[in-house]
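Input.
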Amino acid sequence: MRAASYSTVGLELVLSVLFGFFGGRWLDGKFGTDPALALVGLVFGAAAGFRSLFRAARRMTDDSEHDGFRGADVGRSARFAMSERMAASRARRAALRESSHEKPERERA
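Output.
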């Protein structure tokens, strides 16, 4: 669900810039100020698009912190936790193998 909301960030940025530019061109046609309002619209559209991008990045960071990871520690924490789980799994498999190879008491004699 979160990935779907983050996947639209690029589209949102492009649409903001285009909407600002073409809105400025439309206003240029209305008021006869040929390139000025198109450039102003372009700047405002870019600002709105980047604001949206930064908000999405902040939400993404907040979500990752909420999941228990923080910043650059994600790689180290995840690798350490995985190596611990792998070691525990190997120990369980070795114990199961060893216990399955043992003969019952009456067969040993």
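The mean pLDDT is 81.
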